[in-house]
Design brief:
197 residues; alpha+beta; SH3 type barrels; 5-stranded antiparallel beta sheet; 5 strands; 14% strand
Length: 197
């Protein structure tokens, strides 16, 4: 045995891990991994079918499925989530949003002048790793980006009635998006006269 193999065996023993390998092309020998793989694919498939997003965004659906599964309680862990077992605290779920819903991301001040829109329409794609933000698909620029300043419309789904082949470009869906005024300055008459005193 090489030194790295000996160190690995000692590490496994210290952590209580039983290291076993399986034969090639026999997935039946690795049932736990195969079952989890099936679970991830089932949730990903559900997200993709329900979202009607082009197939090229399957990776985003898989990452979102993983994020959600890791925060769901399971009988295998005595009704705890994998997140809770790993970090010894319950996950916060208040930030969770509906996959593929319409949202508006605020435009940064440095990227706009006074006459440009203060927000642009996007589709919610998930949660970026190691960042307190949301992963969004810009419907006008057809680009994925992250933003913290987002207003969600969780009952509006721009791709709901659009049929498209999996290899085509992103269809133009901005015509069916409702207008919103959430990022405009409020009208002065909406506040009482003593609101700023």
């Amino acid at each position: 045995m090489e030194v790295k193999d000996i160190l690995a065996v000692e590490f496994y023993k210290e952590k209580g891990i039983i290291h076993q390998t399986s034969c090639g092309d026999i997935p039946q020998q690795n049932g736990v991994v195969e079952r989890k793989h099936w679970h991830l694919l089932q949730v990903t498939r559900a997200l993709m079918v329900q979202s009607k997003l082009p197939r090229k965004y399957w990776g985003e659906a898989l990452l979102t499925a993983t994020y959600l599964i890791n925060r769901m309680p399971t009988n295998v862990l005595q009704n705890r989530s994998p997140f809770e077992v790993l970090y010894k605290t319950r996950p916060c779920c208040e930030h969770l949003k509906i996959f593929r819903c319409l949202c508006y991301a605020a435009t940064l001040k440095r990227h706009r002048d006074k006459l440009q829109p203060r927000a642009h329409p996007c589709i919610f794609l998930g949660y970026p790793y190691n960042q307190k933000a949301y992963k969004l698909l810009d419907l006008e620029a057809n680009k994925i980006f992250t933003s913290r300043d987002v207003h969600f419309h969780e009952n509006v789904f721009p791709f709901q009635h659009i049929q498209h082949p999996s290899s085509s470009r992103l269809p133009i869906v901005t015509e069916c998006i409702p207008e919103t005024h959430m990022f405009q300055e409020p009208e002065p008459h909406l506040f009482p006269s003593n609101a700023y005193t």
